[in-house]
Amino acid sequence: MLDILTYVKEKDPNEREFHQAVSEVFESVKPVIDQNPEYAQLKILERLVEPERVILFRVPWVDDRGEVQVNRGYRVEMNSCIGPYKGGLRFHPSVNLGILKFLAFEQVFKNALTTLPMGGGKGGSDFDPKGKSDGEVMRFCQSFMLELFRHIGHNTDVPAGDIGVGAREIGFLFGMYKKIRNEFTGVLTGKSINWGGSLIRPEATGYGSVYFAVEMLKTRNLSIKDKTCIVSGSGNVAQFTAEKLIELGAKVVTLSDSSGCIYDEKGIDVQKLAYVKTLKNIRRGRIKEYVDKYPEAVYTPIDPIADFNPLWNYQGDCAFPSATQNEINAKDAQNLVNNKVFLVSEGANMPTTPDGVDIFLDNDILYGPGKAANAGGVSVSGLEMSQNSSRLNWTREEVDRRLKLIMENIHKTCMDASTEYGAPGNYLKGANIAGFLKVVNAMIDQGVV
Ligand code: NDP
Questions:
Q1: Which of 78, 82, 328, 338 is the most exposed place for a label (fewest CB within 10 A)?
Q2: CB of residue 165 inside a 6 A radius of ligand 1
Q3: 238 Cα to the center of ligand 1, angstroms
């Protein structure tokens, strides 16, 4: 068999996160590849790791002091064999081509798992919205769209939000797209409910991650009620993960941002969470301020170069990493295991390093990998596209019902595939195999293109 990892590393030696994502998927699907020698002849693996198209562009804009700033914009259109490219935009200083290729690659298989007709893509910029005024963010988004518009469309490529891209940014991006194209179509998802968005879309990734956890717990006759939960991040995914957990009777004791984490032993309740939403979404403050408001909680700074993250060393039953990639390393994973955490549901994309994942699997942790556990966001984006096409608005209950059903189906699909390939309950293997088979079969049907 082709050593695909060596092939990818030789081609693009600096794309560390992309190598990690490729290695994880192809290791899981090795039995499928071994059973299907025609994949080699058709160069399926080589085609899967090469984006169909990469767009890289200059994004010039003027800051509040009148100075010209220049950022770099990207869109990675990875694979469209199941539907239009679909995947978020990330605005964060760490963004580079390797990170976006990893996210786009993951997205291809995740979208396949949802059963909705969506290909995979991802994009963004090294622009940092933190500390910028609304006017600066708007001017940046407008300049970004002035180039991106020619590459996207409701039947071609439909971006959404991700880190640093929430309702505010989607609004500015959509406004510019509509003006240039002179058309009102569902070219972006995550739109505001007043102008084409779907109810439950902001909640969907976090709620979906909890629904996936509930399904995993059912396999051991357990419920989420009364479980102590460690949640990382305090952005979109973290907020709605916490919200659903609280609603289902669990106790959420932590939240974080890139500077530090808070631990609230009594639990973050609805009222405290409302404070966090205002703090993060409106005042755009730091999670440290939580302890000014609730002095019974403890704040601990996170040192990005330390060999472990204090957040993952709190006592709990279930962990919901909901911030960013590689936020749980082997030491963190071991700390979670030592503290008797028995479930990990990944709201973030690839938040656990490969050696961390091995520790979870070796210790029989209920481990929901991101491409399954966080697929609720893109699923409701798919539902938003359907509503836009048919010019209908479904009720909150209807969208939530469909989201829950999709998460239950994804869980079953992963479980069935893991069982068929001799590793029952290994959701990582199950998710990778099921997503891979769907994509590869479609590629084969469509010929060498
Ligand atoms: P947000 O921008 O809303 O929130 C991100 C949170 O993670 C913030 O609290 C942020 O802290 C923290 N964070 C970001 N980068 C780092 C870092 N390098 N180290 C530590 N903390 C960090 O993003 P989302 O909530 O939308 O996304 C979170 C994760 O979920 C990402 O992995 C994303 O790809 C994934 N995801 C999101 C989906 C969605 O629908 N939004 C769908 C599927 C997956 P700070 O403010 O300090 O930067």
A1: 338
A2: no
A3: 8
Name the domain count of the chain: 2
Q: Extract the residue ranges of the chain whose pLDDT is less than 70.
A: 1-2
In this structure, are 217 and 349 located in the same domain?
yes
Report pLDDT for 99.
98
Residues 272 and 340 in one domain: yes
Ligand 1 site, residue 347, Cβ cutoff 6 A: yes
Give 371 Cα–ligand 1 centroid separation in angstroms.
Answer: 15
Task: Tell me how crowded residue 305 is: count the other CB atoms within 10 A of its CB.
Answer: 4
- pLDDT recorded at residue 2: 60
Nearest residue to 297 via CA among 305, 289, 308: 289
Q: 424-442: buried (b, 16+ CB within 10 Å) or exposed (e) per residue?
A: ebbbbbbbbbbbbbbbbeb
Those residues whose C-beta lies under 8 Å from the C-beta of residue 416, and which sit 6 or more positions away, are 430, 434
Asked if residue 232 has its Cβ within 6 Å of ligand 1, the reply is: no
Looking at the structure, tell me whether residues 67 and 127 fall in a common domain: yes
Q: What angle do CA 86, 91, 96 make, to 5 degrees?
A: 85
- φ, ψ of residue 262 to 5 degrees: the values are -115, 145
> Which residue lies with its CA nearest to atom 44 of ligand 1?
348
Residue 256 inside a domain? The answer is yes
Half-sphere exposure of 265 (CA within 13 A, CB side): 4
| Residue closest to 55 by CA, chosen among 89, 5, 82 | 89
Residue 370 lies in a domain: no
How far is residue 158's CA from residue 109's CA, in Å, rounded to a whole number? 17
* Model confidence, pTM: 0.97
Do 139 and 167 sit in the same domain of this protein?
A: yes
- 30 catalytic? Reply is no
Which pLDDT score is estimated for 387? 96
Same domain, 212 and 177: no
User: Does residue 260 line the site of ligand 1, with CB under 6 A?
Assistant: no
How many Cα atoms occupy the beta-carbon half-sphere of 280 within 13 Å? Answer: 25
Nearest CA to ligand 1 atom 20: 258
Does 418 map to a domain? Answer: no
CB 393 within 8 A of CB 197: no
| CA distances, 281 to each of 70, 72, 143, 194, 300 (Å) | 26, 25, 23, 18, 22
The DSSP output letter for 311 is G
Domain carrying residue 144: 2-184
Pair (125, 61) in one structural domain: yes
- Judge if the beta carbon of residue 104 lies within 6 A of ligand 1: no
Strand order of the β-sheet with 251-252 is 251-252, 228-231, 318-320, 343-345, 366-368
Q: Which of 239, 257, 276 to mutate to test the pocket of ligand 1 (most atoms within 8 A of CB)?
A: 257
